[in-house]
Design brief:
About 45% of the residues lie in helices and about 15% in strands. A hairpin with a 5-residue loop joins strand 1 and strand 2. Helix 8 runs antiparallel to helix 9 and helix 14 runs parallel beside helix 17.
């Protein structure tokens, strides 16, 4: 679409800024003036267009397509066509498209789906069929929620309004959208189940009978408004006379504006609460003809397949029509000859545009109910509104920058008779734009939005099939007096011609696809042209730009050509070879574990060529003629470094020539050093693959850069620290790429040593080796980097599958020093947690670091063996920082921290306690257990105790989760750990006096650690605990643990006296009043009265009851009163027999016959038995037979029930022979 005439049209007024308007061209392939007779509606998201005429409709949805030139463009393609009407003679009279926002959290702001609402002349409104009134539907309108911009503005909520000739139906938006979603979900479910049965939810709506107006053709629902006190008093006096009473608070009212005739415009006000919403059961549309690509049942649209009989049945049965609530007109604008045709409400709900049959467009002030402006000569006009926010750039220079962001309002008028589209500033502003667009277009303005998406004004041209979007710059709303930009327009136009050549050059140099030869030729030509001009007329800035860009392009070309030449220089590796062979095995292991490359864009790859545009954007010519590298993003910095140095490091480019070229260009050696080290560290993986070759080339490059002017200061005294070498050192110290940093340190150490030696030779001419502070710092740095490399190799070992997650920790000298004295132990403890290394296993490994024989025996353990060797190697490099006590202490703390994050993982707390047990120093043990108790344990422990006290038994899972924050099984495990922790506390408190506190030390090279104190240091600072108080808590913990383990019914805290209760959950370091410890005399006497034989007999009966006969026989031997036991067991035997003969599910014929043969006394006795008391009724017959035999042995012959026992024996033997 050629925008030239539109762009020039913005300039039609005086002092208007020339502004290009954006547009979307979306081909629809329509032609002719027929469009004026159609009902057309466009979704506010511009992704669905509905065109309907009489009973037919076409739906067009947005699709991307590639045109002949390969350009992607948005088109509106036909997705469905067909007939919408289901009743005879009904036609489409109105339609709107409502996008429903997605409720998913991951939504990107696009609508979930778009509901098409269609009104018919029969009175039906179909998104589903809902008969709200029996007259034709005149107009459908929607209002969506918008956040109020100013205090005092009433918040407006969503609403769908439907206009009939004498009634207005309003549906609450929230209720409607919930119903639509529910219907759509039901359709999807019904389609999936192959069913047609759908039960839509009821829909709430209000229905107003609009009175005192002859004809109504259009309406606007303005929303809820509240009158000011003056207007409230005015209305009260007009309606009620002089003595009218005024309510204390003004009532909230919904305002409706109608247009038509008699009067020409009507203002209606419905007081909130004056009408109850009507509930109607939604009659579903039988739209079987709509099942197509867009309306397939699977996509959850409104096409539901039903057979013919059901269609006829639904059509015959007319829904009930609710009566309307009468609503009288408050006032109107009477004009007997004028008839309104349409009304269009502004987005701010303050103004409305009205068109009439006299060809006028009238602007209404809705708050005051008056006409404030009128345009004439716009017959059949179509209206739209645009609300434009102030650009952010304008705010900075505006005098009102501190105030809220301003918005400008514009009225868009399309006059089809003249084929012109005009933009007018509100309220009394000038026309700011006019465009010739053709006479058969349709202006599409929804007037509502998907929340957060501005409602667009679009123009649909049926001749060309183009859909154009109108965009208006904010500053056009400013009058000439206030607009600084309008005053500067003439000056801007004069500047434009001057700047055009500069802009052209800059945009060309910023082009990513332009080849370097093309850029050089054009810049050179422009430079020559400028040179030939009169020196006074030449733009010196442009000449300088050409000169600097030519210099940069030449540098780019030279380096590109050098990289294509072969590298020849070779350097010896003397002095570094020993270092390389020493750390070689560690480097190999490190290379195995380095992370695999992740997914990245091709253009971000370090191997992708650097385009000239990227090179130019990072270089800047200073006034002195030198080049300065601008550090922008990390990716661009890496790409520039790769371009300059990677070829040299690989040995593909001549190193000295590249360095000479860069030095001649005037780039500072410090910036070149930074770029070189960055490439070296970033491409660690490739460096390690060819370590000898790349190290040799790095050495050559480093020496070459050091020899540049301005690198190492000439006045440098070797006894002080050189800023040049300090730059290399600080880069290595901060790097997380341990291997590359160590190799760089080896090279820099050797180069610095050579530099210092030559410096000393030139000065001293002696055979003494120069001692230097610089070299001392390098020795420390290299040692630290070797330590970091071994530690990082261990941390990179991947955990076994299924172990606790978390990314491998990245460490550098800087992070370890900032982590404090416990930083190293903390890193290893996190590794232990990630690998789920059991405390006993860790103890074994730490013991083996001195035990060489054990190491040799465990020769072939694969990965586990590698892990063990790495851990031992790390511990040997950090003998003080990773002493066993420190490591166990940190592991204990790591596990308890992880348990606190996820208390359901009881194993974490168990392992924390196990690690704590392995700490040999009672001082550290005491401090850590006291810290664990106060920080993590006591709060949950007290919650568990109070919960058990409250319910009087072991609480269920739900209560445990609510009060303690974990399930019942986790609580049991937790209480067990509490018992162990308190026991450790008591043991360590007892042992503290016998042993002196340990002295914590750090390795010499790591003495500079600054940061938080280690866990062990904090533990040693803790105060001692009050032993009886710990013992008191331990007793409670044991009681709680037993209650949970055995599901006892007990109130634990009630077992203690008031002193005991008050002492609980106090700080363990404080001295509390404790209970005396003397046992209650009453309890002592009760215990003495208990006969142990009763308990033994009870235990025998319980074991038989559970079916554990063999264990019962063992306990029976200890029972003294056999007679009583015999009577108890006789009943139990009777219950077993009663179950097998009378209560068993599978009663056999033999059992029935046996019952008939038994003596009547035995039968009666068996029937009186209750087998339900047995915990295990299904006991093998052989066990019961053995029990009866025992009975005969126990009972004396003169016992009253001896004969009954004999009868039982006969019955059991008879049953056994039957089986």
């Amino acid at each position: 679409w050629d925008t030239s005439d539109w762009e020039s049209a913005w300039d039609s007024g005086d002092n208007k800024e020339e502004e290009a308007t954006s547009a979307e061209e979306e081909t629809t392939g329509k032609s002719g003036p027929w469009l004026q007779d159609c009902v057309v509606s466009l979704s506010p998201c511009s992704d669905l267009l509905v065109v309907a005429r009489e009973h037919k409709a076409v739906f067009l949805s947005a699709k991307w397509r590639t045109d002949d030139s390969g350009r992607e463009e948005m088109t509106l393609a036909v997705s469905w066509t067909g007939t919408l009407s289901t009743e005879e003679g009904e036609c489409v009279s109105s339609s709107i498209c409502i996008p429903l926002a997605s409720q998913k959290r991951s939504s990107t702001g696009r609508p979930d789906w778009t509901c098409v609402v269609v009104g018919f002349t029969s009175g039906h409104v179909r998104f589903y069929t809902e008969l709200l009134h029996e007259d034709p539907v005149l107009r459908l309108k929607c209002r969506t929620y918008e956040i109020p911009r100013h205090p005092g503005v009433t918040e407006q909520h969503e609403e769908l309004s439907i206009l009939y000739p004498a009634a207005l139906v309003t549906i609450d938006g929230f209720s409607l959208f919930q119903s639509l979603r529910a219907c759509r979900n039901q359709v999807a479910r019904a389609a999936a189940a192959g069913s047609d049965v759908i039960q839509p939810p009821p829909l709430a709506y209000k229905k107003w009978g609009l009175q005192d107006m002859d004809t109504i053709v259009d309406h606007s629902s303005v929303g809820v408004m509240t009158l000011c006190v003056f207007d409230q008093m005015k209305n009260a006096s007009i309606l009620g006379g002089f003595n009218a009473s005024v309510k204390g608070s003004p009532p909230a009212m919904s305002q409706y504006i109608t247009v038509g005739g008699g009067p020409y415009t009507g203002f209606y006000y419905a007081v909130e609460g004056s009408s109850q919403p009507l509930l109607s059961h939604v009659a579903l549309a039988v739209a079987s003809k709509l099942t197509s690509a867009l309306f397939s049942a699977a996509s959850g649209w409104l096409g539901w397949n039903k057979n013919k009989h059901e269609e006829e049945a639904v059509q015959k049965q007319k829904p009930k029509v609710e009566p309307a609530t009468p609503l009288g007109i408050r006032f109107g604008l009477p004009d007997s000859r004028r008839h309104g045709e349409s009304i269009c409400l502004s987005p701010c709900n303050i103004l409305a545009g009205v068109t009439d049959d006299f060809g006028r467009v009238t602007l209404l002030d809705l708050a005051r109910g008056i006409t404030i402006r009128m345009w004439k000569g716009y017959r059949d006009a179509q209206l739209g509104w645009l609300q434009v926010p102030e650009e952010r750039g304008d705010r900075e220079f505006s005098p009102s920058a501190s105030l809220p962001r301003r918005h400008a309002l514009f009225l868009v008028i399309y006059a089809p008779r003249r084929g012109i589209l005009e933009i007018w500033a509100m309220q009394q502003g000038p026309r700011v734009g006019a465009f010739t667009v053709g006479k058969h277009c349709r202006l599409l303005y929804a007037g509502y939005r998907l929340m957060g998406v501005n409602s667009q004004v679009c123009l649909l041209d049926p001749i060309t099939g183009a859909l154009r979007t109108v965009n208006i710059p904010f500053h056009l709303a400013l009058s000439d007096k206030k607009s600084e930009r309008a005053k500067d327009m003439h000056l801007l136009k004069r500047l434009t011609t001057l700047l055009r050549s500069r802009e052209a050059l800059e945009s060309l140099l910023a082009n990513k696809n332009a080849p370097v030869s093309c850029l050089t030729n054009i810049t050179c030509t422009l430079y020559d042209t400028l040179k030939q001009q009169d020196p006074e007329e030449v733009d010196t800035d442009l000449l300088q730009l050409c000169s600097s860009q030519l210099k940069l392009l030449q540098l780019y070309t030279d380096i590109q050509q050098l990289h294509s030449a072969a590298g020849t220089e070779q350097d010896s590796l003397e002095g570094i070879k020993d270092d390389l062979s020493r750390v070689g095995p560690t480097l190999q292991r490190y290379a195995q574990f380095t992370p695999r490359p992740s997914v990245s864009f091709v253009q971000d790859s370090p191997d992708s060529p650097l385009p000239p545009q990227a090179f130019l954007s990072q270089m800047e010519c200073t006034e002195s003629g030198e080049l300065k590298v601008i550090r922008r993003s990390e990716t661009e910095w890496n790409q520039l470094g790769n371009f300059l140095f990677w070829g040299c490091l690989c040995g593909k480019s001549p190193l000295h020539k590249v360095c000479d070229t860069l030095q001649q260009a005037g780039i500072s050696p410090q910036q070149l050093l930074s770029l070189l080290l960055n490439v070296w560290l970033q491409r660690e993986k490739e460096v390690l693959q060819k370590s000898e070759e790349t190290v040799r080339n790095l050495h050559t490059l480093l020496i070459a850069l050091s020899n540049m002017k301005g690198a190492v200061e000439e006045s440098w005294d070797p006894q002080s620290v050189s800023p040049w070498w300090q730059q290399v050192r600080s880069t290595c110290i901060q790097s997380h790429n341990a291997a590359a940093a160590l190799l760089a340190a080896f090279v820099a150490h050797r180069a610095a040593k050579a530099s210092i030696t030559s410096h000393a030779d030139s000065k001293l001419q002696s055979e003494w080796e120069a001692v230097s502070l610089e070299l001392e710092q390098w020795v420390v740095c290299v040692r630290q980097l070797e330590d970091v490399l071994v530690l990082q190799t261990l941390l990179l070992v991947p955990p076994p599958q299924g172990a606790a997650g978390g990314a491998a920790a990245q460490c550098s000298i800087k992070t370890l020093l900032e982590g404090g004295t416990g930083g190293i132990a903390d890193s290893v403890s996190k590794w232990v947690f990630r690998h789920s290394l059991a405390p006993e296993r860790l103890k074994e490994i730490l013991q083996k670091r001195e035990d060489k024989e054990a190491e040799q025996k465990a020769g072939g353990e694969g990965n586990d063996e590698k892990q063990q060797k790495l851990l031992v190697a790390v511990c040997q490099r950090f003998p003080h920082s990773l002493s066993p006590d420190l490591l166990f202490a940190h592991c204990c703390w790591e596990y308890v921290v992880q348990w606190n994050k996820d208390p359901e993982e009881g194993q974490y707390l168990c392992w924390a306690v196990e690690h704590l047990k392995l700490v040999s120093s009672p001082h550290i043990q005491l401090g850590i257990s006291a810290m664990m108790w106060s920080t993590f344990i006591v709060k949950r422990f007290s919650a568990a105790a109070f919960l058990m006290e409250k319910v009087g038994k072991a609480p269920k899972d739900r209560l445990c989760r609510r009060d303690v924050g974990m399930g019942d099984k986790a609580v049991t495990s937790f209480l067990g750990c509490c018992v162990q922790l308190l026991q450790i506390l008591m043991e360590s408190d007892s042992a503290v006096e016998e042993v002196s506190a340990p002295e914590l030390s750090v390795e010499e090279v790591w003495c500079g650690a600054e940061g938080p104190a280690s866990i062990a240091e904090l533990a040693l600072e803790q105060r001692g605990v009050h032993y009886p108080l710990v013992q008191h808590h331990c007793l409670l913990a044991s009681l709680l643990h037993a209650t949970m383990t055995f599901s006892l019914k007990v109130k634990p805290l009630s077992l203690f006296d008031s002193k005991g209760k008050n002492a609980f959950f106090r700080d363990l370091t404080t001295i509390q009043l404790m209970p005396s410890g003397d046992m209650d005399p009453g309890l002592v006497s009760l215990r003495q009265e208990v006969n142990p034989d009763i308990l033994r007999r009870h235990l025998v009966c319980e074991l038989y009851n559970q079916g554990l006969d063999l264990r019962a026989e063992e306990v029976m031997l200890e029972v003294e009163d056999k007679d009583v036991l015999g009577s108890q067991l006789l009943v139990l035997t009777g219950q077993r027999l009663s179950y097998s003969l009378l209560h068993s599910q599978s009663q056999t014929q033999a059992a029935m016959e046996l019952l008939a043969r038994l003596p009547p006394t035995l039968c009666t006795w068996l029937k009186a038995m209750d087998p339900s008391e047995l915990r295990c009724p299904l006991v093998p017959l052989s066990q019961t037979s053995r029990l009866v035999s025992r009975l005969i042995e126990i009972l004396p012959e003169n016992h009253a029930q001896y004969s009954l026992a004999l009868h039982l024996l006969e019955a059991v033997e008879a049953l056994t022979t039957e089986d």
